[in-house]
Amino acid sequence: MKFSFKNDYSEGCHPNILQALVQTNLNQQAGYGEDEYSAQAKKLIKDKIKNQDSDVYLVSGGTQANLIVISSILRPYQCVISAAPGHILNNETGAIEATGHKVLSIETEDGKLRPADIIPVLESHSNVPHQVMPKLVYISNSTELGTIYLAHELEELSVFCRQNGLYLFMDGARLGHGLTSEISDLTLERVAELTDIFYLGGTKNGAVIGEAIVINNKDLQPDFAFNIKQKGALLAKGRLLGIQFMELMKDDLYFDLAKHANIQAMKIKNAMKERGVQFLSDTYTNQIFPIISNELIEILSEHFEFYVWKKIDEQSSAIRLITSWNTGDEAVERFIELIQKEL
Amino acid sequence: MKFSFKNDYSEGCHPNILQALVQTNLNQQAGYGEDEYSAQAKKLIKDKIKNQDSDVYLVSGGTQANLIVISSILRPYQCVISAAPGHILNNETGAIEATGHKVLSIETEDGKLRPADIIPVLESHSNVPHQVMPKLVYISNSTELGTIYLAHELEELSVFCRQNGLYLFMDGARLGHGLTSEISDLTLERVAELTDIFYLGGTKNGAVIGEAIVINNKDLQPDFAFNIKQKGALLAKGRLLGIQFMELMKDDLYFDLAKHANIQAMKIKNAMKERGVQFLSDTYTNQIFPIISNELIEILSEHFEFYVWKKIDEQSSAIRLITSWNTGDEAVERFIELIQKEL
Amino acid sequence: MKFSFKNDYSEGCHPNILQALVQTNLNQQAGYGEDEYSAQAKKLIKDKIKNQDSDVYLVSGGTQANLIVISSILRPYQCVISAAPGHILNNETGAIEATGHKVLSIETEDGKLRPADIIPVLESHSNVPHQVMPKLVYISNSTELGTIYLAHELEELSVFCRQNGLYLFMDGARLGHGLTSEISDLTLERVAELTDIFYLGGTKNGAVIGEAIVINNKDLQPDFAFNIKQKGALLAKGRLLGIQFMELMKDDLYFDLAKHANIQAMKIKNAMKERGVQFLSDTYTNQIFPIISNELIEILSEHFEFYVWKKIDEQSSAIRLITSWNTGDEAVERFIELIQKEL
Amino acid sequence: MKFSFKNDYSEGCHPNILQALVQTNLNQQAGYGEDEYSAQAKKLIKDKIKNQDSDVYLVSGGTQANLIVISSILRPYQCVISAAPGHILNNETGAIEATGHKVLSIETEDGKLRPADIIPVLESHSNVPHQVMPKLVYISNSTELGTIYLAHELEELSVFCRQNGLYLFMDGARLGHGLTSEISDLTLERVAELTDIFYLGGTKNGAVIGEAIVINNKDLQPDFAFNIKQKGALLAKGRLLGIQFMELMKDDLYFDLAKHANIQAMKIKNAMKERGVQFLSDTYTNQIFPIISNELIEILSEHFEFYVWKKIDEQSSAIRLITSWNTGDEAVERFIELIQKEL
């Protein structure tokens, strides 16, 4: 069987999690997230962001987190602003629109939003009441293109949003990878200060399912649990989510796993760079997009699985390689050797 | 008071309609569109399209027609394709999204959609089930930019939609103007043959309110009335809509009114063209978009009302002039004289 | 043709309205409710409720008013409380649910809600977050059964709602009839003080279309116009609504028309009572529900149209008779004569 | 710590599942339900219902399954019919209404629906298009009251639904318990024949999360996966669901676990019956509702957890006891001993 670099959710979960599931399995617990493991997980997250006043909720997946957060915040006539590659725009089957809200798309080179990108959208939506009212800015970190927000970028965006009455929501499906990137100067604590709401992704970083939604803006906290239940996201055995985040948050396992994934990707990136390979974008997280010849793609495909991402010209395409918390040295070395042999 | 070229809904309604309202006023009639005037109006429309198998429903306005038609047709995960200037995209406060459906936007020069515009959208929405499914093509005739579909253009689009399992829906808020344009070779009968569903706009063509939805595709006919009622669009006194379309459809009044509006606009257009004025797009309906200097805009504004549509450069902008069924010769002549004096 | 007592929307509109439509017809006006007639109508309404701080919006019909008001107020997980005969529960094709909100039904004898009816609903919805959160109380005056709220009843309900964090919304499709009932001690001004939001129905009281929504609670005022546009209820020619309410509010025409309808109904009621007829409920507005024999129903049906409302036993049923602003003495007298002859 | 009879989701999952999770953990698999374990689970289910033409989808929980199934089937103006204790009516925070659909409630003694219950609902919803159109009958087996459908009851309901153009949907959150009840004469195969769609609940029968939706009616199968993704229910690591149902379906583990839960409940029921205890309803599944004195409730509460379900009079209440796949003999015996001692 070929080793897969297709995504970061090909494996199950970190062994610590399995072990905790086994150890706690027959303990009777209250249902619907009222179990003691969930309580402990939430406490660990609040400790890490150094804010006991934030509210934490655990749900199963990213699309679920996105649709619950957005529909809980917006009034019917309000809409979302997202960078064009935003997951909610392209990969969630219209989940946000299904809750009644438009998502405005902004073209950006690197998948990140800056105040200068948003200003024209606000200006072109001033025909009250004939147009939707932009109210929430949706960003991802790391983005769908593998890029990350630096501290000053997030700060500028946060200030801009607050000045303009916009909520700032960070999709953190790969927040671990974003924060442990070698070029990142952001901390989880700072993310919590600068956003109204964000989530810590588990599914793509060592959990089998699970995202932890953190609500920092107190105006957005009341009654949030109703939205989770109404959208079918309140697990009877919430312990499954609690146990996972309890384990991931212990001793920074969450960040260690993400860092490992980043390091493995960077090894491949550097090896390819040394051989003169160009990249679609200059990423420092667990997603890389090298541009290689069709011949090389064919050779690599005999030994590895990955996505051909974007055709560049008749002779070459960008491929996408993703590493995970569990991508071992052996696979990375085999891949690099093959590159070095062929280039 | 300044004469307004701002839009085609500044006046009340055609005198024939008022007269009919007065004459029928105290006749007791069944409610909710079951009155005899609505029946007669529907018959006249079916006669005009030469198809007794189409279903006709009368509603108050365009946004209402658009949201009822689209939400009645699509399954929750299906979406609409529209040209970027489409009314549903920009001027209806997210009414379509509020019913749960995404609207995909396609950039086009002239506000019209062609198969070549749609093919890439279909190709980029093949990641089942992670993306919305394009299912309905929304077009306007005349378009929001004043342009129109020629017969062969609508035919090609219709064939393409049928081959690709897409419904074709024509927003006819200004269908009278589209069909009576001097360059149009389309007929109402042909529109009914080539679309699955369309509507005849009354509000912008001599009615005080009212759009007539015509459902040609028999698959889309069952139970349609439920959608009208559910969205709050079933008037208790449906006679108000019936009487208006009864009058408009008599002796082609509907088309005469639209033609009049077009002619008045063409007079202004030609006068400006003679003086060397350029236009944002080459339209032959009741909307024109001349590009003129800021100085001229200021002078015209002293005597007429109109929208400044789009800044072209520091010295000039395109303005939008709209004529209506009731735009008299006197106002047009005054406008032309002013142009001729100043240019 | 048989005279119809089926409903109060069988005729067109009051002649004053037609006259005003004719007189103003060719005046150019701003669109979308920004016309001077709408401004004047709104001012007249605010004067009548003696509250310049309320906001007034004009829409076409009752279902539209109900769905816009309710969906604009509630968060996704909140629901409405209504008496079982409530129009939104039975006669609007699930319009409220279509905006995402449950309507809880309370059985009551007379179609009215009292605090004692609501308390058990609140108590049985305490399982947070597994149940919807009751947040808005919907009442009608006059009710769907023709009954009305007395001042002390509305006061008690209002106090209860404010104490329990519930909004109070009055459907006033027949508010004129409710307030001019011979037993009513409520005033329009008092209705505005005691409710968060209500509307004055025009369609059933002399207008051809139109309901005037009055928002008294300042928390519910911001951005309301967006909801109207999004739901397809913002008429391009808002003048049609403005002119009607301008005329209806002049010199209390609105109340005179309602009072007339009530009086005509009471004449019939009293004539039947004199002959020993029982009624389904003891109403004092323009709806009466006499219980008569099947034979009498048959005889009456030869000369008049009305609904057979409810089967009482094998020999008799309750019928519903509704009078309108335009129900003349002649028809009433003919009906009474027939009754007197047959009973 | 007190042993809990509060519900059947207090523990984790069956050890076989944990073992399989451990064994497969590091195998790379395709995402989003395309893994080999999900394929195997679906095959096992189709084998058990002896219908390879049914479609099977795995989702996380019951509310999720209910809202996805119902919103995928109904047109906007159609509604659901449910018995009054139905889970979708009382315990899902308006999840169905949030997708735009009304749920009509029918009072029944035992939580089951029969044709005679549904006929009046159909008859009272004939005012087209002013009322919602009943289209889907929602039932649970076992019901929320612990009762079950016998074969002839389900057959009569199925025939009735097909004759009346209604879909029949069975919520099977506790289907294992229903089918293994000592009085049940239904089989899983027969359930699949008689319903259009149903699901097999895992969460309450040994899985940590998971319900298996089975679509038997071929008209309801196309595009179903889009609905799952759009509602946020498509797990990236679908393997978690696949592995669980793979294990549960092996060698009838699913039914063995349910039967065990039923047997434990019956032991308690019989012991109480012997001492003269009355029950709220005569159930033969893992939910029992004994009516006992307040004194006894207090004594039992010192040693066990359970819900006080319904006050009967000043001296006594019905309590709810639920047993699970993991309720051991020791706890049951302790409970019975206490009963025998006190009664």
Automatic annotation (TrEMBL), chains A, B, C, D:
<feature type="domain" description="Aromatic amino acid beta-eliminating lyase/threonine aldolase">
    <location>
        <begin position="16"/>
        <end position="291"/>
    </location>
</feature>
<protein>
    <submittedName>
        <fullName>Aminotransferase class V-fold PLP-dependent enzyme</fullName>
    </submittedName>
</protein>
<dbReference type="InterPro" id="IPR015421">
    <property type="entry name" value="PyrdxlP-dep_Trfase_major"/>
</dbReference>
<dbReference type="Pfam" id="PF01212">
    <property type="entry name" value="Beta_elim_lyase"/>
</dbReference>
<dbReference type="InterPro" id="IPR015422">
    <property type="entry name" value="PyrdxlP-dep_Trfase_small"/>
</dbReference>
<dbReference type="InterPro" id="IPR001597">
    <property type="entry name" value="ArAA_b-elim_lyase/Thr_aldolase"/>
</dbReference>
<dbReference type="InterPro" id="IPR015424">
    <property type="entry name" value="PyrdxlP-dep_Trfase"/>
</dbReference>
<comment type="similarity">
    <text>Belongs to the threonine aldolase family.</text>
</comment>
<keyword id="KW-0032">Aminotransferase</keyword>
<keyword id="KW-0808">Transferase</keyword>
<dbReference type="GO" id="GO:0008483">
    <property type="term" value="F:transaminase activity"/>
</dbReference>
<keyword id="KW-0663">Pyridoxal phosphate</keyword>
